[in-house]
Write a structure and sequence with these properties.
Radius of gyration: 19 Å
Strand content: 15-25%
Helix content: 25-40%
Distance between the termini: 40 Å
Strand order of the largest sheet: 1-7-6-4-5
Number of helices: 12
Number of domains: 2
Bound molecules: coenzyme A
Largest sheet: 5 strands, mixed
Structural class: alpha/beta
């Protein structure tokens, strides 16, 4: 029996193919964690959280609800939106920092849940930039003719690694998932991928990381006692990096185009102050920037596809106009994807 996932696919001799997005999907857990509830858990206030971050509530996975389940729900919605079945997926990429396991890849678990045993796949570990890096990866495989259909899922269950005794981080993060189906532009008929970028700078794990549980510091009683299996973040350092990177990515991505060509910037929902400050520096009016952080907080790799999904649902992806997705996060990593909707 031939396994389709290992069938060699020769690169066509002709030019690269144009790539588009055929479908979008999302999933957020039902449970809302409000600022009022956090006020009762740590020394904070609704006013402080709203003023500094713009977040009013975030979604939290139910006990036992897995990242792969959330990712599978978003994936199935994206496939239905694209009008194709899971059997058509050639490659499944999952961007996450909170997968079900360190290994195996959460992509494998999602493929199993949605019924895509023929698909190849892997996880993308680029933190909050994971979805845009995944989108670029998908686009290369389709453009070269290696694959017809690539499903990219961004999912996070950050509630599993957030310390609800640390007011500096617990107010920021939430759970959720988003997904997009990439295929040839001819088949997708919309959402043309025009290009993207990705960058990274190492040696900055102190800025944002999960200190223990990796091979540098495997789990011990001491690491648990020191609460090192929870997110640690230097908020100020990340703040400065995020604003500068946002501005740089948007300016470079849109430089070749006229002002009137831009439809919407869909940024990683990092923090409302960061988004507003960067938009001001780029001279972007806020009605050209999509924001849903007030309802979901920062959902890392899920944030861009979730925002893209909601932007389309709100009628804010205008046919023929540019959509610029930008993201940045732990690593440090960053990247963008430019689409014409
Ligand atoms: N409620 C009330 N006070 C808080 C608080 C909270 N939830 N979190 C921190 N504080 C306090 C600090 O302890 C500090 O008190 P001190 O002056 O007595 O020491 C004070 O508020 C200021 O702290 P600081 O960290 O300097 O605040 P900030 O203005 O930088 O805002 C963040 C903090 C986290 C909101 C901000 O730095 C930020 O958004 N950074 C980016 C984070 C991010 O987006 N991470 C994800 C990247 S993908």
């Amino acid at each position: 029996m031939t396994d389709p996932s290992i069938t060699p696919r020769p690169r066509p001799a002709g030019a690269l193919r144009r790539v588009g997005i055929a479908g979008l999907g999302h999933y957020v857990p039902e449970r809302r964690l409000t600022n009022a509830e956090l006020e009762r858990a740590v020394d904070t206030s609704d006013e402080w959280i709203v003023q500094r971050t713009g977040i009013r509530e975030r979604r939290i996975a139910a006990p036992g609800e897995l990242a792969s389940e959330m990712g599978a729900r978003a994936a199935l919605e994206a496939l239905a939106d694209a009008g194709i079945g899971a059997g058509a997926v050639d490659l499944l990429l999952c961007a996450t920092v909170t997968g079900d396991y360190i290994f195996p890849a959460t992509a494998c678990e999602i493929a199993h849940r949605i019924g895509a045993p023929q698909a190849g796949g892997f996880d993308i570990g680029a933190a909050c930039s994971g979805f845009v890096v995944g989108a670029q990866t998908a686009a290369q495989f389709i453009a070269t003719g290696a694959y017809e259909t690539v499903l990219v899922v961004g999912v996070e269950k950050l509630s599993a690694i957030v310390d609800y005794m640390d007011r500096g981080t617990c107010v920021i993060f939430g759970d959720g998932a988003g997904a997009a189906v990439f295929t040839t532009l001819e088949r997708a008929g919309r959402g043309e991928y025009l290009g993207g970028s990705s960058g990274m700078r190492g040696g900055e794990a102190d800025a944002l990381s999960l200190p223990a549980g990796g091979t540098k510091s495997p789990a011990t009683f001491d690491t648990v006692e020191r609460r090192e299996h929870f997110v640690r973040m230097q908020g100020r350092q990340i703040y400065r990096f995020a604003v500068t990177t946002f501005v740089d990515l948007v300016e470079k991505a849109l430089a070749p185009y006229g002002d009137d060509e831009l439809g919407l910037v869909v940024p990683h929902q990092v923090n409302l102050r960061i988004i507003e400050s960067a938009a001001e520096q780029c001279g972007l009016p806020m009605d050209r920037v999509f924001v849903n952080i007030d309802r979901y907080g920062n959902t890392s790799a899920a944030s861009v596809p979730l925002a893209l999904y909601e932007a389309r649902a709100a009628g804010r992806l205008v046919p023929g106009k540019l959509v610029c997705c930008v993201a940045f996060g732990a690593g440090l990593t960053w990247g963008h994807v430019l689409l014409r909707w």
